[in-house]
Amino acid sequence: MDDSELSAGILNQVPIEIAISVGRARPLVRDMLKLRRDSVLTLDRRVDDPVELFIGERLVARGELQELDGEQAGYLGVRLTEIIDLREAL
Question: How many CB atoms lie within 10 A of CB 74?
């Protein structure tokens, strides 16, 4: 095994964190100061709109939110609908 194969094998074992963006809100400061428990902050997206997956600041995919079944019932997952070229994104 040469160095590049060893490096690739090691890199394949490194976990990465993916952030899922479901929307953004742009309230005024005065509106933020009024927020209390059970307040609702309106986002710029609808429930059916795609979510975006980011690694750091880079968009890597889009998908749809789904509630999982079985042992993972109650958890959310993302069904990927579009994948950006990861070699370019990373």
Answer: 7
